[in-house]
Amino acid sequence: MPTKWKTASALPGTYPIGITEFSSGNDNTFPAMYALVTTIRADNGTATVQYCTAWNNAKSRTWVRSARDVENVWQEWVELETTAGAQAKADAVKAYVQQYGLGVAARSGIDWNAIATTGFYAGSTNGPSGNSTYIGIHVQHGSAYAYQEVGRNGIYYKRTRENGEWTKWEQTETVSGSASRVLTARDEAISRAVAQAKSYTDEKNDYEVYWTNATWRSGHSGDLQWCIKAGFLVVKGMWNNTGETGIQIASVPAAPKYRTYINAPTIGSYGEVRVTLGNDGVITVDGLNANNNASVTRLEILFVIPVESRG
C-alpha cells in the first residue's frame, strides 16, 4: 500500500508492518531519484527489506538493503544483477581472455621477446630459429620472470626469462630423438673401432674383418656378433629384453684379460643396462635401470677390449 514519502535515512522501525511503496522523488540519498521504493516489514516486526527500482525504458536497475529491527540499522545498498548485465560482464571477460589465445586460435604474429601476459601464441620473431613460425605458451610471473615452450614439426624448445633477461632457446629431448641419437652414436663407435682395427691390420696385409655370431644361452635371442683384430676383441649388437637381470645371456670364444663392465643404452624406454664380459667370455646382464623397465624392448652393447686366446 502507498505510504508517506520518506528519506533514505529513515530508520527501518519507522515503516509500518507489511508492504509499502512510494516514489523517491528528487531525493538523491536513494540509489536513484524518482524511483519506486518498496518496503517489506515482517508481521512480527523483526526484519525489514527495502527495494529501490529505477524505472527507465532504456535500462531498469534495482537495489536492495535490509535490516533487523533489533538493531534498527540499514545495511548498505546492493545492486541486483540483471540477465543482460551478467551477459555483458561475461562477454567482456571472454573478449579479454581470447586476446591471449584462450578459447580461440593462438594469438599470431607476435614477438616472443615482447610477450608480458600468460597465454597461447604463435609467431616467428625472436623464435628458436630463422623465420619459422612456432606455436606455444607463455607463462608470466611478475614483470621480470617468465617461461616459454614452443614447438613445430615435432621439434620443441623452451626457455625462461630471469630478472628481465631471456635465456637462449634450448631444444627439448624426445623419446624418438633420444633413441635415434643412441643408435647413431653406437654405429659411429663401431665404425671407429673397426676402422682402428683395420688400420692396424693393414700393416699386416690383413684387410678383412670377419664377424661371428655369439652363442646364445637358453631362452635368449638377438643379433650379437664378435671379432678379434690386432689383439682386440670387439663385441657388438643387441638382444631382446626379457626383463631379467643377474643372468648369463651369451658367450664368445675369446676372453678379455680382465673382467670388463659397461653401461649400455636401452631401447623402448630411456635408461641404461649394466653388462659384464667375463674373462671366460660369458656375457652377463647385471642390472637394468630405465624410465619404465617393462617398456624396454632391446638392449645394445659395444665392447672393444684387449683379449687373450683361451686355446
* Count of helix runs: 2
Task: Count every beta strand, where a strand is a DSSP E run of 2 or more residues.
Answer: 22
Please give the largest β-sheet. 10 strands, antiparallel
- Distance between the ends: 121 Å
Using only C-alpha atoms, the radius of gyration works out to 40 Å
Assign the CATH topology of the largest domain: Immunoglobulin-like
CATH class of the largest domain, anyone? Answer: Mainly Beta
The CATH architecture of the largest domain: Sandwich
Helix residue percentage: 10-25%
Query: How many structural domains does the protein architecture include?
Result: 3
- The CATH superfamily name of the largest domain is Phage bIL170 RBP, head domain
Q: Indicate the mean pLDDT.
A: 83
Q: By helix and strand content, what is the structural category?
A: mainly beta
Low-confidence stretches are 203-207
Helix/strand order? EEEEEHEEEEEEEHEEEEEEEEEE
Beta-strand proportion: 35-45%
Identify the overall geometry: elongated
Question: What do you see in this structure?
Answer:
The protein has 311 residues and is mainly β. It folds into 3 domains: 12-80; 85-171, no CATH class; 176-308, Immunoglobulin-like. It is 14% helix and 41% strand. It is built from 2 helices and 22 strands. The chain has helices at 83-98, 175-202; strands spanning 18-23, 36-41, 47-54, 61-68, 78-79, 107-108, 119-123, 134-141, 145-152, 155-162, 165-166, 170-171, 212-213, 215-216, 222-229, 232-240, 247-251, 255-256, 260-267, 271-277, 282-290, 298-308. The strands form 3 sheets. Strands 13, 14, 15, 16, 17, 18, 19, 20, 21 and 22 form a 10-stranded antiparallel beta sheet that branches. Strands 6, 7, 8, 9, 10, 11 and 12 form a 7-stranded mixed beta sheet that branches. The longest helix has 28 residues, at 175-202. It is elongated. Mean pLDDT is 83; it is low at 203-207.
